[in-house]
Design goal:
Pfam families: 2OG-FeII_Oxy (PF03171), DIOX_N (PF14226). The protein is α+β, with helices and mostly antiparallel strands. It contains eleven helices and 15 strands. Helix 3 (68-81) packs across helix 7 (164-191). It starts with 7 loop residues before the first helix and ends in an 18-residue tail after the last helix. Bound molecules: N-oxalylglycine (OGA) and nickel (II) ion. Nickel (II) ion binds at residues 230, 232, 294.
């Protein structure tokens, strides 16, 4: 029996505690958005005011060929300004991208009990977590999103612990993405004057996580957000989005990409993947590369799926701006920290734009 969604407690119990998710709430028949999901006006997304990001996707098949330098420049420019770009000829088979989206829809269509076994406090494995919103206990307004998150340690553990319905495509996605991620990091590091050894890149992408995000249809997209303003905490994120759209990035400084403070939409491009710079790359580059602030709107008629791969160093890693960069810059913007401490701060606060980076800033309290 669906509870009254006007009552905050029974809504929380149904959606969060019992694992029915936003999907369960929507399926129970909802004609308006419950109070708990109403964003304050300042966080609402006016889709008519956002431009589409017009840059064509970067063709990664040209890396290593005669046009290598030009392509490398495009990657660097995007990472320095917007922190977001799209790539094609990325090495992930296009039919796998289609299967991933279909598989995500199938997974979230399973009965709630099937997904709820992976809720944080009851999951049979620390590698898999099913949840809704970001930190529901702390958020003033909840995000209109359910997700499942799968940490990668090795193939054997993934095969053993990841949900079997989504395991094989997710592993294949991870397997076929990683050489692209390494090439991108190589380009970004070389541009900083660092000779990237394989071992250094190994450290930067030591931990990997595949998520599937599900944004159910929403009766009032103007009042809600799918994901609130945030940056990703890790190294690079690879994101597969479907054709629905609604992913927005904030422009940090006036540039060829637009005016400071403006939000641009990263439009769906068939067979492309979206890449975004995470907080760790901003720190390592001493602020040269921008970890982009982004958010997702909800839609009325069709549910949206997206499938990110998050890469990051090991939790025990010590992170600080690269010495080569600090030397050249003559100053350092970020202090050295242990990644576990950064993560603890990141995952215990509601999304709030790029506030996560304050943790690493030198002159902040
Ligand atoms: C995320 C995210 C964007 C999207 O999962 O961190 O920003 O399009 N997702 O779903
Ligand atoms: Ni994100």
């Amino acid at each position: 029996m669906a509870p009254s969604f006007d009552d905050g407690n029974s809504l929380f119990n149904f959606v969060v505690r019992d694992g029915n998710g936003v999907k369960g709430m929507v399926d129970s028949g909802l004609s308006t958005v419950p109070q708990a999901y109403m964003q304050p006006p300042i966080e609402r997304i006016d889709k008519d005011r956002a431009r589409k990001h017009g840059h064509p996707p970067i063709d990664l098949s040209k890396l290593g060929g005669p046009e290598h330098d030009e392509v490398a420049k495009q990657i660097v420019r995007a990472a320095e300004n917007l922190g977001f770009f799209q790539v094609v000829n990325h090495g992930v088979p296009v039919d796998l991208l289609e299967s991933l989206k279909d598989t995500a829809h199938d997974f979230f269509s399973l009965p709630a009990e099937k997904k709820a076994v992976y809720r944080d406090d009851v999951s049979p494995t620390p590698l898999v977590k099913y949840g809704t919103s970001f930190v529901p206990q702390k958020e003033k307004a909840l995000e209109w999103k359910d997700y499942i998150s799968m940490q990668y340690t090795n193939d054997a553990e993934a095969l053993q612990h990841w949900p079997e319905e989504i395991r094989d495509v997710s592993l294949e996605y991870l397997r076929t993405s990683m050489s692209m991620v390494r090439k991108l990091l190589q380009v970004l590091l070389e541009n900083l004057g660092v000779k990237p050894e394989d071992s250094m890149i190994d450290v930067l992408v030591d931990k990997k996580m595949v998520n599937m995000n599900y944004y159910p249809t929403c009766p009032n997209p103007d009042l809600t957000v799918g994901v609130g303003r945030h940056s990703d905490m890790g190294t690079l994120t690879i994101l597969l989005q479907d054709g629905i759209g609604g992913l927005y990035v904030k422009i940090e400084d006036d540039s060829e990409f637009g005016k400071k403070g403006e939000w641009v939409e990263i439009p769906p491009v068939p067979s492309a993947l979206v890449i975004n710079v995470g907080d760790m790359v901003q720190v390592l580059s001493n602020g040269k590369y921008k970890s982009a602030e982004h958010r997702v709107r909800t839609t009325r008629t069709k549910s949206r799926v997206s499938i990110p791969i998050f890469t990051m160093p090991n939790a025990t890693a010590k992170i600080a701006p690269l010495p080569e960069v600090v030397e050249k810059d003559g100053n350092t913007l970020y202090k050295e920290f242990v990644l576990a401490d950064y993560m603890k701060n990141f995952f215990s606060n509601a999304h709030d734009g790029k506030k996560s980076l304050d943790f690493a800033k030198i002159n902040s309290a």
